[in-house]
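Reading a protein record of the kind used here takes only a little practice. The record below shows the convention in full.

——
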Amino acid sequence: MAKHRTYSIEFKRQVAQEYLAGETLHALAKRHDVSRNLIRIWVAKQESGEFSEDAEAANLLQAYEARIAALERLVGRQALEIEFLKGALKGGARLRSATTSVVTGPTASLSPKDAN
């Protein structure tokens, strides 16, 4: 089964412009390894102005994809911060319930005779 190739709007526009500038279909098809019929379709779209609309849509899509990627990075960073803070909260609760005295061992006697 043959795979379909995809071409950028800029490439399609360039090939259509070359044809409109006087290149032959045969030479363009051979140089760019595309069918002559496909070049005819691209030329028709170029003449009707569809490539300008497609280019605007592609630019808008690219901007949205960049914004989505930035937001996904932000969400990932915030998820890491939340996990870190949850761990710190759990560790902090144990410390508060433990004794805070530096001295450990039996309590000191108040009577002077035990001091000897």
Summary: The chain is about 70% helix and 0% strand.
